[in-house]
Design a protein that fits this description.
alpha/beta, 13 strands, about 375 residues, Rossmann fold
Length: about 375
């Protein structure tokens, strides 16, 4: 089969949607080399291209074939990409981040798939500007209506698509995300020491990885750290980018006198993350709601225990070995952190059971499920 992908975020995004795109495509290339893969992108960010190279002979990077497309990437991706698809004639086109081009359903012989990661903008509209909500609603509804098959990254997202858009359940298939397999590989002691020195990491620490925005609920984590500090003084390392809410978090850290107990790192390259995960004693992810929560999988793969929020998709990502808390309750967060950090047998059990659970997210399993969807559409 010849399969085309919306590769905008493969080449232009270092976090969630970019990681999803890269991992999905690289798993397909690894485990299903019999197919041809076309990556459609308006342009390649040179830094990202160097960090995530594509060199397989079955992979082609496709850029706009017209002057208009080359001059306006957003218009090309939404409206004019169909011209390139008509010329290249792939069997399948997969929109990896909620969107398919307008009019794509009119192309004869082309079957379409779209991945919907979450409908948080409908569940929690307060986290989005009205203009963002309007654009997302138009694009998401169009994709769910016109795609031949919808891939949801969790059962939670599948139920949201059914609830908010009235989409038939049989049109949606849940295919879990997998994380980069590099997180499963033990980092050498030499590299651990080098990373520890480079980022001035403490000997023991609780870790958070993710963006700094209100939905991530980091204020409750900081409150929980302040409460835990009364009995157990383990610092917190936070990795992520953000603007206004990050300033709010920093202000709270200062107000609670935790300046020397919290280390905030930004612009950490992906290649350094496995060592930072594996050096941590505990991973805490107090988000209010997610489509899936890939940092949870990264942490479990790195063999550290995980605490996250109850509800949403978190049980799907974390499984039975993860500790779940009311993330709006700092006392509960603090108690869970203390329990895991002071009970080595509990931590070891969480790690062992977590490793058993995440086999379902292995790239061979997830890519095979996607290929079955593609094959079914071409029957």
């Amino acid at each position: 089969m010849k399969i085309g992908f919306d590769a905008k975020r493969y080449f232009a995004n270092y976090t969630g949607l970019g990681n999803y795109s890269r991992t999905l495509i690289e798993n397909l290339v690894t485990y299903h080399p019999e197919n041809q893969y076309l990556l459609y992108t308006h342009g390649k960010d040179l830094e990202t291209s160097d960090q995530f190279p594509i060199s397989d002979p079955m992979v082609s990077v496709m850029t706009p074939g017209t002057r208009l497309g080359r001059s306006n990437g957003a218009l090309w991706r939404s409206f004019f990409l169909t011209r390139d698809l008509a010329a290249n004639k792939p069997d399948i086109y997969h929109g990896l981040s909620h969107e398919i081009p307008v009019g794509i359903h009119r192309l004869k012989g082309l079957k379409t798939v779209v991945t919907i990661h979450d409908l948080i903008f409908l569940r929690y509209p307060r986290f989005y500007r009205w203009s963002e909500r309007a654009i997302y609603l138009r694009k998401f509804k169009y994709s769910c209506r016109h795609a031949d098959r919808i891939v949801s990254v969790s059962e939670q997202t599948k139920q949201d698509i059914i609830q908010f858009f009235g989409t038939p359940a049989e049109k949606i298939e849940t295919v879990y995300q997998s994380c980069d397999p590099v997180f499963l590989l033990p980092v050498t002691n030499i590299k651990r020491r080098r990373i520890k020195e480079r980022y001035q990491l403490p000997d023991q620490y609780v870790l958070y990885v993710g963006s700094f925005n209100e939905r991530k609920n980091l204020s409750s984590l900081i409150d929980g750290l302040a409460i835990m500090k009364r009995n157990l003084d383990v610092p917190l390392v936070m990795i992520g980018s953000g603007k206004q809410y990050k300033s709010t978090v920093i202000a709270k850290i200062k107000m609670l006198g935790l300046n020397h107990r919290v280390l905030i790192l930004s612009d950490v390259p992906n290649k350094d993350l496995p060592a930072i995960y594996q050096l941590a004693k505990l991973f805490v992810y107090p988000s209010i709601f997610e489509g899936f929560g890939i940092p949870i999988i990264e942490a479990i793969s790195s063999r550290i225990p995980v605490i996250t929020s109850s509800g949403s998709c978190f049980m799907e990502a974390g499984g039975p070995a993860t500790r779940y808390v009311d993330s709006s309750n700092p006392e509960e967060i603090a108690a869970a952190m203390e329990a895991v950090l002071t009970d080595s047998a509990l931590a070891a059990r969480m790690i062992a059971e977590g490793m058993d659970y995440i086999s379902r997210f292995h790239g061979q399993e997830t890519s095979s499920r996607l290929v079955r969807i593609y094959q079914d559409l071409k029957k």
